[in-house]
Automatic annotation (TrEMBL):
GO MF term (any one): hormone activity
Subcellular location: Secreted
InterPro entries: Meteorin-like
Keywords: Disulfide bond, Secreted, Signal
Gene expressing this chain: METRN
UniProt family annotation: Belongs to the meteorin family.
Protein known as: Meteorin, glial cell differentiation regulator
Record organism: Latimeria chalumnae (Coelacanth)
């Protein structure tokens, strides 16, 4: 973490927002602009008001200051979230070709580097930048500060990323260990958590199936679980595709590398939530264990929803 240098402070406080080529999407969720008409030392102020969107800065020069102020519906929070803290969590996912700028988290006058400029060899090697997340409390002033890096040739420099803003993701659904608390992220779900994961609308995927393979990506610190689904109980998006005429479907679910997922025999009930268009693992009990838990809750009239369990 570093304190704002005097030059940056002066730039932030005294610069005027000049008219440069830029555009917002119709829904005010995304922004696209060019630094070609932006004078050195100028800071353009940008404000986006959606739960997800993107920013694309072509030929970066000068700086951008981005405020993310989503108009989240009342009670809209991420899976497993605590509805009492009011904590807001945001994640940014740089594009594969991100280059020409650095992204800082600006919190109460202090800058913390989130995404550094990338060496050309990383871009050519198609090494995917890591997702970075941060949280803020209600009323806390937090912004993203994008500072262009000096370049002799700004051609082919594009600093772009997607963002997501949610209410209070808890440790189970947060996979960026550099920025969020990871305590308990890999622990097994208890009975109540399993039932809620199957029933709640926060989870967009509930499938019954078997693990085909597990591949690990040390750079991204994630594991990809390839799953053959025998039954899809819920799928908000087409995350699992039909596998020929077999009646089964094939899809992928991601989880953190540190959880040490291994291929295992037997049928599981996988629950997942959507993160940057990809399914991330929630609870995944063996199906026989889920069936036992569900039938016991149903007999006690404590099941939070009805689900075909045969």
């Amino acid at each position: 973490m570093l304190v704002l240098a005097p030059l940056v402070l002066c730039t932030l406080l005294l610069s005027r927002c000049r008219s440069v080529w830029s555009s917002y999407s119709e829904d005010q969720c995304s922004w696209r602009g060019s630094g070609l008409s932006q004078e050195p030392g100028n800071v353009e102020q940008i404000s986006l008001h959606c739960a997800e969107g993107s920013l694309e800065w072509l030929y970066p020069t000068g700086a951008l200051r981005l405020s993310l102020s989503p108009r989240l519906p009342s009670g809209a929070v991420g899976p497993g979230a605590s509805r009492s803290t009011g904590l807001i969590t945001a994640c940014i996912k740089p594009t594969e070709g991100f280059r020409g700028a650095q992204i800082y988290l600006e919190r109460d006058g202090v800058l913390e580097l989130l995404v550094p400029d990338r060496p050309e060899k990383e871009v050519r090697g198609r090494r995917q930048p890591a997702v970075r997340c941060f949280s803020r409390l209600p009323g806390e002033k937090v912004a993203l500060f994008l500072q262009s890096t000096p370049q002799w040739d700004i051609s082919r420099r594009i600093a772009a990323f997607r963002y997501e803003v949610r209410g209070d993701w808890n440790s189970r659904t947060s996979h960026d260990s550099n920025n969020l608390n990871m305590e308990g992220a890999c622990r097994p779900c208890n009975d109540s958590e399993i039932l809620m994961a199957v029933c709640t609308s926060d989870f967009v995927l509930v499938v019954r199936g078997n693990i085909r393979t597990v591949s690990n990506n040390p750079d991204l610190r994630e594991s990809v679980i390839s799953v053959t689904a025998s039954r899809i109980h819920r799928q908000k998006y087409l995350l699992f595709q039909p596998l020929g005429k077999s009646g089964r479907s094939l899809g992928e679910i991601r989880t953190m590398l540190k959880c040490g997922v291994k291929p295992g025999a037997g049928t599981f009930l996988f629950t997942g939530w959507l993160h940057f268009g990809e399914a991330w693992l929630g609870c995944a009990p063996r199906y026989k264990d889920f069936h036992r838990i569900y039938e016991a809750a149903k007999e006690a009239h404590e099941n939070p929803c009805e689900i075909a369990s045969e």
